[in-house]
Amino acid sequence: MTIPTYTLNDGLEIPAVGFGTYKLTENDGFESISAAINAGYRLLDTAAMYGNEAEVGRAIAESGIPREQFIVTTKLRGRALGFDETMLAFEESRQLLGLDVVDIYLIHWPNPRLNRYLDSWQAMIELKDDGLIRSIGVCNFPRQHLQKLIDATGVTPSINQIELHPYFPQSELRTFHAEHGIQTESWSPLGRGSELLREQVIVDIASAHGVTPAQAVLRWHTQQGLLPLPKSATTERQALNLNSFGFNLSLAELNAFTALERGRIGGLDPETVEIM
Ligand SMILES: NC(=O)c1ccc[n+]([C@@H]2O[C@H](COP(=O)([O-])OP(=O)(O)OC[C@H]3O[C@@H](n4cnc5c(N)ncnc54)[C@H](OP(=O)(O)O)[C@@H]3O)[C@@H](O)[C@H]2O)c1
Hints:
- The protein is of the alpha/beta class.
- Helix content is 39%, strand content 15%.
- The radius of gyration is 18 Å and the shape is globular.
- The mean pLDDT is 97.
- NADP nicotinamide-adenine-dinucleotide phosphate binds at residues 20-22, 45, 108, 139-140, 161, 187-193, 197, 212, 214, 229-234, 237, 240-241.
């Protein structure tokens, strides 16, 4: 199975679907991540906050697959915002992953009230210039904070990883991303175990294409140029989620999914909620 790719604004080519690893910790987590690698995932999404960078690193090391075939994303946690703090936190993540170079490093949460994300961004630019990171980006950044990074440094994030699924399609922010060449990554792309995958319109459209509701929702992401990061601890679902490119939704079907819009699932508005 060949997975399509996207090219980031700095030239890095990455798979159009990645594996989310939130909550996959310790030995069970290691087993799930290893199974996902066996299923064919090569873009792995972890974070200092998930407490599983060591498990991700071990799964890669023990996979027998050359390191260069993986794109490993990790994230700077909210409490480590600041220039020196970022340098230290990055080094800790790099050691836990057991990697010389981290492919993608993202600011996990802007925490605007702290007013420190710009210092972190400057540290990340330095780390990239030093060759320790291949691509730098952010998560959960509303447009005015993206604009602040761009205006202050002239360096546009390659990625903004945001909550995105048919209940919360984030059309406005996506337009800003498109105008600035920022790749949108979708977190909770399947609606995080909510009733999304049981919505009748999704069930019916999936069935008409002979695919599962999750596959139909993932295709809704990739047909719009979004990069979904589905998480599953189940081997069978991991494979199904990766293999969602062999059919196309019509424009009316895409719109029918988008019409389910009703807002964030957990209410985590990054403008006001602080996550450390
Ligand atoms: N940057 C951020 O702030 C941020 C925030 C949240 C998440 N993320 C990233 O995004 C990733 C994904 O988000 P998420 O874990 O919140 O939600 P998600 O991927 O939308 O949903 C995961 C849930 O869906 C279930 N599931 C997976 N595949 C399925 C299928 N084919 N059919 C039915 N159910 C299925 C999983 O259960 P099983 O495991 O039992 O299969 C799990 O309960 C995270 O792991 C993390 O890497 C980033």
